[in-house]
Amino acid sequence: MGSEPVAALQRPAPALPPKPRAHAWAWAAAVAAFLLAITWHLGINFSALASGLGDIAEYIHRYSTPNFTDWSRYLALMGVTLATALWGTVIAAGLAFVLAPLAARNFSPHPAVYRGAREALNFMRAMPDLVLALMFVAAIGLGPFPGALALGVHSAGFLGKFLAECMERVDKGTCEGVASTGAGFAQRLAFVAWPSILREGFGYLLFILDRNVRMASVLGMVGAGGIGLELYNSLRIFNYDQSAAMILVILATLLMIDHAASWLRRRLE
Amino acid sequence: MRLQSAKWRWPSPSGLPPARLVGGLLALLLVLWLTAPLVELNLPRLASSSGRFLRFASQLAEMPDWGYLPQLLSKLIETMEMTVLGTFIAIVFSLPLGILAASNTSPHPWACRLTRDLLSLMRAMPELVWALIFVSAVGLGPLAGTMALAWVTVGFLGKIFAEAIEVVSPRALEGVRAHGAGRIQTLQFAVLPQALPDLVGTVAYILDHNLRSATILGLVGAGGIGYDLVMSMRMFQYGRLVMIMAAIYLIVTALDRGSDRLRGQVIYGQ
Asked: What domains are there in chain A, each with its CATH number?
């Protein structure tokens, strides 16, 4: 009994497990090599970029004298852009209101409906809103409304997916409780799905509105009206003073909306 | 009959929807009605254009132009390369900016405020506007697109990184500091390991977002598939258009699913 520990002590120490190797440097080198290959393949020349920094500074300097003589028109155009974003968001909310419950696994009436709604949302997300705007402009004609439609369809893909994921996280007990009273599909939506995700859903709606305001200022480039069209035209004829004024108007509006959205979000929480 | 009507009562004592909801909906309707002239909503024209839309859609049902395939693939690869490069450059720049903008790791409250404002300026305008500006500054090609992507992404990533760092548990920071760790060592051993899952999840989301943006940057000549997309639409080459749209749909869907799965694994450990 006494000799056992001694024997254990005399036994040669077991071989140590291999020392863990830090592969961080190897990974960093591999990533760097990959990025260099991409840079070479794209034909980007960063040394030329570095030597051209002076040119860029000179170019940006051309925007230093914004010309606000037409400010009332810019504000009106910005109003059109904001209205486009609002309409787009309302269209998105309407589409998502219909599609989200169908695309939530626990509320969907049938697995086939679930698959179909998922794929529909996925397709709406996959089409860039500028491409949709180009198509709607071709079909309906120039003007802000095709832009609003494009924004609505594209962002409904996102909003519907977010809302459906929220609904899938709804507590199972609540669903079963209401279903056990004999509630049908519409009643389960009215009394379980929407009330439980109201707060979260509102946050997502704000996010979509925020995003649509940003995108609406670009849609003008494909003929969908608003301040984007004016900006595109004045940039194309190298009218730096007016472009700078419009960029400032867009920036100021977007910053205000950013602050308003974060204030609203804080109030929601 | 009474049972039928009782079924559709609002779940409130009075059986009526709350005044706030009704008021909100009425206000929204009023705003929509007021802004309808601004967006030039014209229902008769909309109804009459549905025929034109169907004709446009039927034109899309054309045989794909297979001869275009090699160029399509090279443009797709260019788009993805721009996405990866722009995102990586953005990560490199936004990590220090995020650390500066997080209130618990910022060296000074003023640095925090200033960095936050800078980041929100950077992300205020969409990639396409910056791409227009960069195209005028550095010329046509993928460089301008990559710069525009990286610029806007720094604005988004910096903010999200800062938020991920702010929710790091202060105990770990204290513990590491109590061992005499300096600023860099605190970041390396307490802040970054805790924030890492959030950061990886965010990068997956941003990659997805940037790929979507990169597909349209070509519209202003900033490289990628967008130029071919617009040109085939303007020149009525619907055989090409169908292929481009199918290709965009496929890669965006693939990345969408991949990033969902990665985020699920990293954030929720599923």
From this structure: 70-268 (1.10.3720.10)
| A–B interface: beta-carbon pairs under 8 A | 143
Token couple for B181: 């760790």
Asked whether this complex has an ipTM greater than 0.90, the answer is no
pTM value is 0.80
Residue A114: phi and psi, rounded to 5, are -55, -50
Q: What is the DSSP string of B168-230?
A: S-HHHHHHHHHTT--HHHHIIIIIHHHHHHHHHHHHHHHHHHHHHHHHHHGGGTSSSTHHHHH
Nearest to B249 among A80, A126, A143 (CB): A126
**Facing residue for B126 by CB, picked from A144, A187, A218:** A218
The domain limits of chain B are 1-42, 66-268
Beta carbons within 8 Å of A173's beta carbon, 6+ residues apart: none
Contact with chain A for residue B58, Cβ under 8 A: no
Query: What's the gap in Å between the CA of A160 and the closest CA on chain B?
Result: 15
In CATH terms, the superfamily for domain B66-268 is: MetI-like (1.10.3720.10)
Identify the closest residue of chain A to B12 by CA–CA distance.
A191
Binary contact (A49, B138; C-beta < 8 A): yes
Q: Tens-digit pLDDT profile for chain B (270 aa)? A: 444 445 566 766 777 777 888 888 899 999 888 888 887 777 777 777 777 777 777 777 777 778 788 888 988 999 999 999 999 999 999 989 998 988 888 888 888 889 988 888 888 788 888 888 888 778 888 888 999 999 999 998 998 888 888 888 888 888 888 888 888 888 888 888 888 877 887 888 888 889 988 988 888 888 888 888 888 887 878 888 888 888 888 888 888 888 778 777 776 665
